[in-house]
Amino acid sequence: MKLYTYHTPELTPDGQLPECAIVVDILRxxxxxxxxxxxxxxxxxxxxxxxxxxxxxxxxxxELCLRAAERGGAPVAGFDLGNSPLDxxxxxxxxxxxxxxxxxxxxAFQRVxxxxxxxxxxxxxxxxxxxxxxxxxxxxxxxxxSGWEGTYSLEDTACAGAIAHEIKTALGDKCEWGNDESLxxxxxxxxxxxxxxxxxxxxxxxxxxxxxDRHADIAYCASIDTHKxxxxxxxxxxxxxxxxxx
Length: 246
Ligand code: 3SL
Prior knowledge:
This protein is 38% helix and 20% strand. By secondary structure, it is an alpha/beta fold. The chain has one domain (2-245): Alpha-Beta Complex (putative 2-phosphosulfolactate phosphatase), CATH 3.90.1560. The mean pLDDT is 97. (2R)-3-sulfolactic acid is lined by residues 25, 27-29, 70, 73, 83, 102-105, 146.
């Protein structure tokens, strides 16, 4: 396995895709997707564009549909949910398909959605992601951070580093660094692994969320291995729980 990390979708190489793409948007889209699927949502369908979300969700039975949207960290008026993972309770989302659009995370999914395998990673499901990679051993893996409107996000690098460090530890010489970003991310994670909440609160997007009074969200997003689910793309833009990973 060769492991590449790209800090934003814009930094991924043009005209190429890996065998397996792992999308990371720790604050908060991929944390929310893991939470929603763990709470029994049927699937999460992601959209970069709000109008496409509205037209696609209108084709779904309304009683089985929730629309979720966030821009600039805040919920978008007229939608059922924003992007706080704490709102995705079993009572709210069980058996529902969630049609979701967020500022950056859903754009990152769109960039890699033609890859043969696409999965969503958060700190919450770190072991599930690493186990999947160890079992399937794809030849080339990209970890794609969502960033913020094309710029770097520290918290996504910390999660990329957690995956990189754990998979390198598990596979040893069978896992090669594809680029220096993967090694740098692994170093960042090892430095901060016991203080992730503190790191996330220092980061630009953490600061943005703190101004919106989302302290509890940040603490939640920094928890490691609290969930076993592995969200995997089953058709373009649609993420569901991978079999054996409930
Ligand atoms: O950028 C995104 O996609 C969101 O995850 C941002 S927020 O955490 O909902 O503000």
